[in-house]
Amino acid sequence: HLGRLCVLLASYTRKTARLRDKADLLVVQLLHLSGCEGPELQLALRSLAQDLAAVQDYRQAQVERLESRVVAPLKAYGDIVRSKRSDLKRFSSDLSREMKELQKLEKVRLRNPADRQSIVSFTHTHTHTHTCTDMHTHTPLLPKTYSFKCELRRCYM
C-alpha cells in the first residue's frame, strides 16, 4: 500500500511540475502577444501574465515542498524497509536451518539412544556453528528492530 502511495505522490508531483512548465510557456506567449496589441489590451495581458507567473511561483514552491518533505522521506523509508526485510529473511533462514539440525540431532538420538559418543560429537560440531550464527544474526537483530520502531515513531508523531 505504501508503494502505491509513493507512486501516486510522485505522479502528482510530476504532473504539477508539467502544469507549471505549461503555464510558464503561456506566460511567455502572453507577454509576446502583449507587445503586438494596443495599450489597454497590452496592460491587461501583462497583468494577466504577471498574475499567472505568481501562481506558477507558488506551484514551484509546492513541487519543491512535495519533493523534499514527502517524496524523499518515503523513498528513504522504502530503502530502510527493504534492508530490514532482508535482515529478517536472513534471520528466518538461519532459524529454519537450526531447526533442521535439531531435527537431525533428534533422529540421531532416537536411532541409537545408547550411542552417546555420536550424539556428543554431533552437538559439538554444530555448537560452534550456532554460536557464530547467533552472534552475527540474532544478537544484532533485537537492537535493529528497536531502533527501527523508534524511527517509525519519530517519523509519524
Automatic annotation (TrEMBL):
<dbReference type="GO" id="GO:0060271">
    <property type="term" value="P:cilium assembly"/>
</dbReference>
<dbReference type="GO" id="GO:0035869">
    <property type="term" value="C:ciliary transition zone"/>
</dbReference>
<dbReference type="GO" id="GO:0036064">
    <property type="term" value="C:ciliary basal body"/>
</dbReference>
<dbReference type="InterPro" id="IPR009602">
    <property type="entry name" value="CBAR/FAM92"/>
</dbReference>
<protein>
    <recommendedName>
        <fullName>Family with sequence similarity 92 member B</fullName>
    </recommendedName>
</protein>
<dbReference type="Pfam" id="PF06730">
    <property type="entry name" value="FAM92"/>
</dbReference>
